[in-house]
Design brief:
By secondary structure, the protein is mostly helical. The protein is built from five helices and no strands.
C-alpha cells in the first residue's frame, strides 16, 4: 500500500510539472484565449514557479515521504492545499470542472485529487 501512495503522489507532481511546462505551447496554439492566459499561466515566472514546486514535491516524495515522515506528508498536503485554493480563487474555469462539456482545469484537478489520495494513504500507512 505504501508503494501505491508514493506512485499516486509522484504522479500528481509529474502531472503538475507537465501542466507548467506545456502552458506556453498551449497558449501559442490557442491565441483566442488572450493575453490574460499567457500572463497568468504561460509566462516565464508562472512556468518556473510551477516547475520548481513540482520538482521540490518530487524530492519530498522520493525521500522523506517514502520513509513515512509526517512533516513531509504535512508539507506536501499544505502545498496541494495552497495550489488548490489559489487556483480555485483566481481561475473561473475551475468552477466548471464538474461539467465535462466545458473546458476547465480538469488536469489540474486530477493532479490535486491524485496527490490528496496518495497523501491520505501515506498517512495511514506510516510505520
Amino acid at each position: 500500500m505504501r508503494k501505491t501512495s508514493i506512485v499516486l503522489i509522484a504522479a500528481a507532481y509529474v502531472l503538475l510539472f507537465y501542466i507548467s511546462v506545456s502552458a506556453p505551447p498551449h497558449a501559442r496554439a490557442h491565441p483566442q484565449l488572450g493575453a490574460a492566459v499567457i500572463g497568468e499561466y504561460a509566462g516565464p515566472w508562472p512556468v518556473a514557479l510551477g516547475c520548481v514546486v513540482a520538482l521540490s514535491g518530487l524530492m519530498l516524495v522520493f525521500f522523506p515521504i517514502r520513509r513515512g515522515e509526517r512533516w513531509a506528508i504535512l508539507t506536501s498536503l499544505v502545498t496541494f492545499a495552497a495550489l488548490f485554493v489559489t487556483r480555485m480563487v483566481t481561475d473561473p474555469r475551475c468552477l466548471v470542472v464538474l461539467d465535462p462539456h466545458q473546458h476547465g482545469c480538469h488536469s489540474f484537478m486530477i493532479a490535486i485529487v491524485l496527490g490528496m489520495v496518495g497523501l491520505v494513504l501515506a498517512w495511514k500507512q506510516r510505520p
